[in-house]
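in:
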């Protein structure tokens, strides 16, 4: 398994000066960690914690999770300049906005591209050190590593490689703005299998390859043949571990404590759980809450949104500016509608572990997912699997991959503040029987198509392709 984000990182606590192990805020980590826990293996990732080096052996490896060793984590070290160019630069100022339709202009610098290539090669070398001679399988995660398949196959052509792209894939016209389009496609197409969350993104990828490469696209087999090498393209909607919904009842003390701390008695509680990112629609969400209270003043003093917001990529100016925009929106809405004892938005800006998030899901009557564009969105599925009482409602942006599966959610266009405000009212006033019916339907989908089914489908597909 290969990803940029590591599943466990060691950091020094500011208050105590002691090191502790945390789970980073990452949809990829949330999804993939249960698979490695179940089947073992080696996960190779960037060691980004400020205490990470203290916990590895001479080969930069350690067993994880710390309290229940199930698999091996191998950390790859990056210099500040490598991280700046490869991660903050090319990956997140270039590819991330290129692939998300949120009207943020991608930035492509030649120096970032050179660093991106250098880091991909560094990861390729780390992977090749670990591969067995017989039937090696490499599962690459996401847009940080478009060049890895080619680099690995050049040294170990018998390796089976799957690349899963967790974010949207744009149409060919948008992808054409990337100056390195051919090198990226060339690197990716040494994979045996490329996966996306939804069929629409598979279609975009095939159209892109057909437009920019000398290749043969087979629309019946959904494959691309280039220089005698066939790569198959499939949709595999990612999901969550059903364990997310376990032990909620045991958290009654935590839930009661939160309810008391935030004065939530007799309140309708909505929750949002996001990284601070311009694709997540956080500013739109805050103003939608304000508009809801303007249009339906009977809910003043009776409705609260608790927004958990994990800071992310703060080195990038757009993200730094966004934090100020969100805080300004929160302050405006709270100033306008609060009465001294109550305020409509409780904004908690810090990193939350999966265990810390669970009580918030449990106390929430409503979960609000407002992403402007998202490959899937696992928060929606986490809330559904956590809502064992079947009494919650999900407000879900239709611009997420999850919206194609969770059709019983109250779906919204987050750009329309009026529609968003009305959706909040619909969720608040939804009858108990309707909540139960909708939640039962959504839980059935998420339970049956959990993260293990996702991984199994990918392995099954690869096995079938190898036999054909």
């Amino acid at each position: 398994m290969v990803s940029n984000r590591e599943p466990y990182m060691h950091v020094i606590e500011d208050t105590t000066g002691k090191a502790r192990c945390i789970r980073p805020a990452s949809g990829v980590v949330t999804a993939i960690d249960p698979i490695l826990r179940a089947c073992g293996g080696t996960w190779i990732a960037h060691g980004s914690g400020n205490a990470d080096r203290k916990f590895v052996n001479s080969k930069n490896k350690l067993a994880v999770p710390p309290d229940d060793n199930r698999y091996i984590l191998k950390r790859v070290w990056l210099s500040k300049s490598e991280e700046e160019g490869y991660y903050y630069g090319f990956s997140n100022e270039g590819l991330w906005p290129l692939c998300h339709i949120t009207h943020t202009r991608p930035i492509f610098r030649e120096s970032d591209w050179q660093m991106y290539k250098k880091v991909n090669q560094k990861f390729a070398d780390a992977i090749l050190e670990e591969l067995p001679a017989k039937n090696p399988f490499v599962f690459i995660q996401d847009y940080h590593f478009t060049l890895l398949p080619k680099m690995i196959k050049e040294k170990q052509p018998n390796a089976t490689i799957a690349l899963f792209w967790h974010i949207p894939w744009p149409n060919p016209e948008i992808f054409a703005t990337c100056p390195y389009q051919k090198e990226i496609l060339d690197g990716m197409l040494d994979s045996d299998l490329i996966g996306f969350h939804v069929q629409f993104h598979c279609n975009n990828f095939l159209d892109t390859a057909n437009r920019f490469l000398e290749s043969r696209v087979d629309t019946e087999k959904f494959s691309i043949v280039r220089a005698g090498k066939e790569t198959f393209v499939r949709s595999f909607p990612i999901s969550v571990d059903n364990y997310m919904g376990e032990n909620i009842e045991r958290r009654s003390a935590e839930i009661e404590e939160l309810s008391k701390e935030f004065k939530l008695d007799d309140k309708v509680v909505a929750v949002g759980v996001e990284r601070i990112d311009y694709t997540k629609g956080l500013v739109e969400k805050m103003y939608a809450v304000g508009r809801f209270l303007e249009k339906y003043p009977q809910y003043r003093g009776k409705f609260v949104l608790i927004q958990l917001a994990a800071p992310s990529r703060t080195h990038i100016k757009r993200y730094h500016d966004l934090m100020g925009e969100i805080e300004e929106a929160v302050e405006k809405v709270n100033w306008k509608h609060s009465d001294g004892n109550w305020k409509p938005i409780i904004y908690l800006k810090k990193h939350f572990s999966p265990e810390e998030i669970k009580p918030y899901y449990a106390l929430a009557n409503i979960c609000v997912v407002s992403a402007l564009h998202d490959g899937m969105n696992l928060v929606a599925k986490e809330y559904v699997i956590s809502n064992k009482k079947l009494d919650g409602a999900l407000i879900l942006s239709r611009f997420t991959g999850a919206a194609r599966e969770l059709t019983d959610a109250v779906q919204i266009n987050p750009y329309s503040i009026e529609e968003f405000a009305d959706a909040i009212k619909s969720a608040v006033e939804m009858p108990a029987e309707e909540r139960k019916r909708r939640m039962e339907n959504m839980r059935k989908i998420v339970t049956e198509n959990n993260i293990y089914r996702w991984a199994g489908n990918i392995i099954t597909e690869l096995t079938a392709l190898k036999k054909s």
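note: The longest strand covers residues 268-275.
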